[in-house]
Amino acid sequence: MELKLNVATKTYAENQQHGLMICGINWGGDPANSSSVDPPSFFSNEAVNRYPYRGRLLSWFSLFGHPLITKEGYEGAFERSIVQTNWLDSQSPNMDNKSLYTECLSQWENLEFHIRTLEPLLIIFLSVSLLETLNSSAILEKARAILCHESDMLITSKEVFVDGKRLKRFRLGFQTFGETQIIALPHPTGSKGLNNKYISMFAPEIYPLIAAYKAKRGFNA
C-alpha cells in the first residue's frame, strides 16, 4: 500500500519539515456522518474544525504560555509550523475495545512515514500510551533508526488540589530522540475528569520545551 501524508492542516513552508507535529490516536467521529469537510488551514484557525478536541488543545497552549493566534490573516510562523495527524489512519468514534498497542503496532509504518517525511522537531502525542508504544521492544529500534537515540522516558503526574479537593491525576510524558523533543499529554476529550487546572501545573516543564522549539526555528518566543 502506498503511504501518503494524512494530515488535517494546510501545507505551509513552515510545517513541511522540522515543524511541530500534534499526533493523536485516530481520526475521531463517524465517517458515515462526515457530510462536509472544512478546507485545510492552519491548526488554530477559529473558522474551521470547531471541535471540542481542537478547542481544548488551544486552551492548553495558552496555559503553557504559548497562546496560538486563531484569526485568519493574523497567524504567524509558529501557527503555520503546526501539523496535525494521528498514529492510526482510520476514523472511528472510539477504539471499540481494540488494543491500542496492537493497533499502533500494526500501523507503525503510517507514523514512521510521517516522521521521515516531516522530520518534526517537536512531537506532541495526545496519549501517554503512544509514547510508551514508541518505547516498546517491538518499535524502539525502528524509532531509533529515524530519530536517533533517546533519553530516558519520563512519565510523571502531580498532586493538585482545588478548594481542598484533590484533582484526578493524569500521566504526562517527556523524552527526546536526537533533535526531536516529545511531549505526551492526556487525550483532550477522551480523558474523563481531566481538569485544565491540572494541566496548567505542568507549564513549568512544557513552556521551555516549546520556547526551545521556537528558538530553533527562529520564531519569536
Characterise this structure.
This protein has 221 residues and is of the alpha/beta class. The protein has one domain: Uracil-DNA glycosylase-like domain (Uracil-DNA Glycosylase, subunit E, 3-Layer(aba) Sandwich), CATH 3.40.470.10. Helices cover 31% and strands 14% of the residues. The protein contains eight helices and eight strands, in the order βααβααβααβββββαα. Strands 2-1-3-8-7-4 form a six-stranded mixed sheet, sandwiched between helices. A hairpin with a 2-residue loop joins β5 and β6. The longest helix has 15 residues. The protein is globular and about 55 Å long. The termini are far apart.
Topology:
Layout: E1 20-24, H1 52-63, H2 77-80, E2 82-86, H3 100-106, H4 108-118, E3 122-125, H5 128-134, H6 140-147, E4 154-156, E5 161-162, E6 165-166, E7 172-177, E8 180-184, H7 196-200, H8 203-217
Parallel strand pairs: 1-2, 1-3, 3-8
Antiparallel strand pairs: 4-7, 5-6, 7-8
Strand content: 5-15%
- Helix content range of the residues, please? 25-40%
CATH class: Alpha Beta
Into how many domains do the coordinates divide? Answer: 1
CATH superfamily label: Uracil-DNA glycosylase-like domain
Low-confidence stretches: 30-35
Largest beta sheet: what is the strand line-up? 2-1-3-8-7-4
Measure the end-to-end span.
Answer: 41 Å
The major β-sheet equals:
6 strands, mixed
